[in-house]
Amino acid sequence: MADAVLVQPDTSFIKDVMASGGGDLKKCFQCGTCTAVCALAADDQTFPRRQMIAAQWGQKDRLMGDPAIWLCHDCGDCTAQCPRGARPSDVCGAIRRAAIKHFAFPAALGSLVANPKALVLLFVLPALIFLAIAFWAPRGAATPEAEFANVFPIPVLEALFFAVSGFVLLAFAVGMARFAKALRAGGGGGLVAAALVAAVVEIATHRRFAQCGAQRQRRLGHLLTLYGFLGLAFMGTAVGMGTMLGVMRTPLALTNPLKLFANACAAVILAGVLLLLAERLMDPAKRAAGTYFDWFFLVVLAAVVATGIGSELLRLAQAAVVMYVVYFIHLVLIFALFLYAPYSKFAHLAYRTVAMAITHSTFRSPGPTSPVVTNAEC
Amino acid sequence: MNKPGVYICGGCGMGQALDTAKLSKLAAGECKAAVSRVHPFLCSPEGVEQIRQDFAAGAVDAAVIAACSPRVKQEAFRLDGQAIIERVNIREHVAWCQKPNDEDTQMMAEDYLRMGVVRARKTEPPEPLAEPVSRTLLVVGGGMTGITAALEAAEAGYQVVLVEKEAQLGGFVATLKKRFPVLAPYTEPASDGIAEKISAVTAHPRIRVFTSAKITRTDGQPGMFDVTVAQPSGCVAPETPGSAEEHSLKAVLLRAGAIVLATGWKPYDAARLGHLGYGLTPDVVTNVELERMAAAGAITRPSDGRPVESVLFVQCAGSRDKDHLPYCSSVCCMATLKQATYIREQNPEARVYIIYKDLRTPGQYEKFYRAAQDHPLNFLTKGEVAGVEKGPDGQLAVTVTGSLLGEKIQLNVDLVVLAAGMVPNAADGEAIRALEEATVRSVKAETAEQRADAARAAEQLKHHAGTQILNLTYRQGPDLPVLRYGFPDSHFICFPYETRRTGIYAAGAVRAPMDSSAAQEDALGAALKAIQAVELAARGRAVHPRAGDITYPAFFLQRCTQCKRCTEECPFGTLDEDEKGTPKPNPYRCRRCGICLGACPERIVSFKNYSVDMIASMIKAIEVPEEDEDKPRALVFMCENDAYPALDIAGMNRLRYDASVRVIPLRCLGSLNIVWIADALSRGIDGVLLVGCKYGDDYQCHFTRGSELANQRLENVKETLERLQLEPERLQLTQLAIDEAARLPALIEGFMDRLRKAGPNPYKGM
């Protein structure tokens, strides 16, 4: 009996998965249709059938160290074909949410973000910070034109956001370290630089995403969102650094190439987010399966984009009071987006990249053919 | 009959394919028919009226109707129900399957007509059985099946005697905590509901209940079973052991017309499940033991009475296993899912593991399975339990291989439940008889070696001692013969409830593994069969599959040589024997298959409308062309139950086959008397093809063993062939199911090719 693995179901994990999107988990009777239709599952990878029974049996440790759950694009092919209505893609989503919570540093913050009851609290904290800045922060001489810096001084915001960024990077680092440990415990290989490059290429092109059958249009929305976000993140950092070093002064002129680029990025991300929102709202099944965790991230992201664009337009219109209020909301949301990134769905950016790099060689490479079920084992 | 009239139909294309006038001339001339008529539409009122008038005028005493298959238009040609009617199938077997207006087609029809007239001439008016019969039904076993059968039969107006060996009615179902779901949405176990049924049975004016009773003797035959029921008299102190019990019994002699055997099942012997941990600790229990525990109160760990936090159910424990029960008991999956709800009821946080080969929850029970599966703390996986050992903290460590989780896993649990299967509570009548004979031979055999062999045989059979249920006084043994896996059912698809003892019907778990809902349905079916049996017996008619037949075999005993073939080969134990071994017929037990007729080397068995002589005369009536005509002839004996209708279907589908064959239907291929083969071959017929039903484990023979016996007899025919110096290719036996009509043309062509290769029969023209 020495070679047998002792199985002790983590019953709270099962209930957690079932309560957060994986409610149909137990319906799975292991027919393997999901694996047959999954574009990711290679012949020797019974994904996501194995993950389904592992979740049914409360095998939390095994799943936390399983990179496969991060490779899933939530395309929904398995859910569409499941003869039993077990919704494997939603179960995988719930497992990912559990993993983000599991690896969260500090753990309390992870639990807080995952808890719908704490929603108000999540926004009260940044709101108080920005109200304090608006009313009490030392500020420079007011400019003749209405500018955000008149209410929210740039040096204060910069200090705040760089501090938050530092904290978020630390939280991600700890989370990734924990994830890597779990992967090793689960028998996963180490991170290879070449594989990381391949993973980045994959992410940049979304080639696997293109194989999604059930929700083909999601790829474009996701791609636009990703590129828009990366552009804005780069711009934000660059402009922040520039102003801090004194080589730039905001607001940049509309004709400034950097400004043009940033506005283009804003348009791109707006289009992406709208596509993703539309896709969610149009599909009744997807709408029904949507969880707090999903919606939190998507809505906050959409609101950040909307208020960002709104703030700029209002500033150009010089609608003084409204513009400050909208900008305040924008700041609160962007703060929340960043601070809670390691604990929200945002974190998939990091976890998926690592998982992709580690499993690059073992999973089915994207190809033009649809998944083929081989009977070699039968 | 002396004055057969021939009536030829020209409808349905027969008039176009055949020269009916020529046929009519043949009938009047060569066949010497009393009248011979052709009608363009014989089954029309005018056509039938003509036949009726000829009977009424005394012009004919039998009608040979050359028209469609005897399987159709039975009502139209029934006349008064008494008249002797012979059907000659020139539609499906000639006009529809042969080249129209061809010489060979016409010859085929002519031969069939000759054979039909001979058949009519050799038929005698039947003399139906007319003894007084009892319509009382005996139901053996007072569980769910027996109670239901008794109630249903009584409600249908029949007197019922219900015999139960235990002191209480209710059987296994009464010991249950809950039953499987019986109503939508099928997600909750149901209460058993047996108490109401027991009161209904006890109070019913037409049901007489014997509890703590056993049947010590069953004599007779359907319609007149004389049953001795023994019951404790109640006057002797119960602690008196052994033989005193015999004295305390009072015997009641009853007469019953038919019997429903509803003796249920017993759990598979758990002592043989040591490999699954049974006996290791008290915490390994069977599903039946768990049910008892649940019915009595809380489910706890039997070893220390501690509450149960985790349970593991081992499905197919000793089932679907060649070393144990090779079959699926069909209820263990549902029993486990039901018992999981017991565990859940008392501890919502308990973990329930179910390790299965396949979960089988047929029909609506799938909904119950789904409900159980949905519970977060029910853990189900396919897998094989490789071992059960003592684990930490007084738990049991169960190793499972081949699980869906991938690797070999170990589970530590408080309780292991073995979902063991059902064994029928049936007695193997033939084995009991073999044991009795071996016991006698072990003392009385001539040589020491024979005595030793007999003693060995007796030793092997000794577990059958004392297992009698019905204690039939039949020559073939005191109980029903058992078939596959020890169940006494005769054919589970075509003839459920039929056993190999006419008038005795098996129902419920003794017939096939089943749950109480299925047992209730079974009880209805078997009760109806028993009612049919007494009603048909009262009319002197046969039961299924020759339902309504009023003929039965007569034995010309002056010529009997006491060879015992008929008494041993009858699948239904119809014949008993006197001391000398002369058969004693019990015609009410008879199914009219004619296997005795086929068995008898002295040819002393005959029916009024089916005899060795009749078939032999029909063979003689076939015109065998001379060798130089190059027209081979083959005789085909076809079982009338499957092969003959298949040939009809071939005709309906206008499948064409060689016109050299002449088909004679037999009641069962088992009624084939090998003298017919010698008769045919010595007349110059080139070959004989025998088409019967599948035999063996999944037999389709309507008389259980007929086609198998025909096959055995064919071994003896090989000698006949050698004696006649004929090639063995001239004889072929094959099996055909009713849905295999498409195979027939190739089968016939293949046989004719064989015969053509073998060349003409040298006995032609002799």
Summary, kept brief:
With 378 residues, chain A is an all-alpha fold. Chain A has helices spanning 11-19, 33-37, 49-56, 60-64, 68-71, 77-81, 88-103, 107-114, 119-136, 154-185, 193-205, 218-245, 257-282, 284-289, 292-317, 320-339, 348-359, and one strand at residues 5-6.
Descriptive report:
By secondary structure, chain A is an all-alpha fold. Chain A folds into 2 domains: 11-102, no CATH class; 105-359, Fumarate Reductase Cytochrome B subunit, CATH 1.20.950. Helix content of chain A is 64%, strand content 1%. Chain A has helices spanning 11-19, 33-37, 49-56, 60-64, 68-71, 77-81, 88-103, 107-114, 119-136, 154-185, 193-205, 218-245, 257-282, 284-289, 292-317, 320-339, 348-359; one strand at 5-6. In chain A, helix 7 (88-103) runs antiparallel to helix 8, helix 9 (119-136) packs across helix 16 and helix 13 (257-282) packs antiparallel against helix 15 (292-317). Chain B is of the alpha/beta class and 766 residues long. Chain B has 5 domains: 1-123, Rossmann fold (3-Layer(aba) Sandwich); 137-264 and 467-538, FAD/NAD(P)-binding domain (3-Layer(bba) Sandwich); 267-423, FAD/NAD(P)-binding domain (3-Layer(bba) Sandwich), CATH 3.50.50; 554-602, Alpha-Beta Plaits; 609-766, Rossmann fold, CATH 3.40.50. Helices cover 31% and strands 20% of the residues of chain B. In chain B, strands 7-6-5-11-22 form a 5-stranded parallel beta sheet, with helices on one face. Chain B has a 5-stranded parallel beta sheet with strand order 13-20-14-15-16. In chain B, strand 6, helix 7 and strand 7 (207-210) form a beta-alpha-beta unit. Strand 1 (5-6) of chain A pairs parallel with strand 19 of chain B.
